[in-house]
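so my prof wants the structure for this chain in the tokens format not the other one, which i didnt know existed until like an hour ago. anyway here's the sequence
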Amino acid sequence: MSHVKAGGTAKNVHDSPGQRLGVKLFGGEKVKTGQVIVRQVGMTKRPGKGTFVSRNYTIHAAKDGVVQFKQRKVRLFSGKTVRRTEVTVE
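here's what i got, hopefully its the right format
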């Protein structure tokens, strides 16, 4: 028979690397077609003129220009209006 007590299991030891989300190009910076402007989870920032959204909600530039961030009101499904940041390329 063994004379060593059973050891417990280790929990919370798995760690995953960061996803490198966030704003990649800030307002006033020059951008080329296809460049990533914002990487995000969900639609926290909205696309405006000169931008498009990929399947993982990343906002890309649709044309060459200068990045601009503006606040605008958006109506939610519940009817509530909230302020959201709109990303445009002029």
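also thought this was worth mentioning. The chain is about 0% helix and 40% strand.
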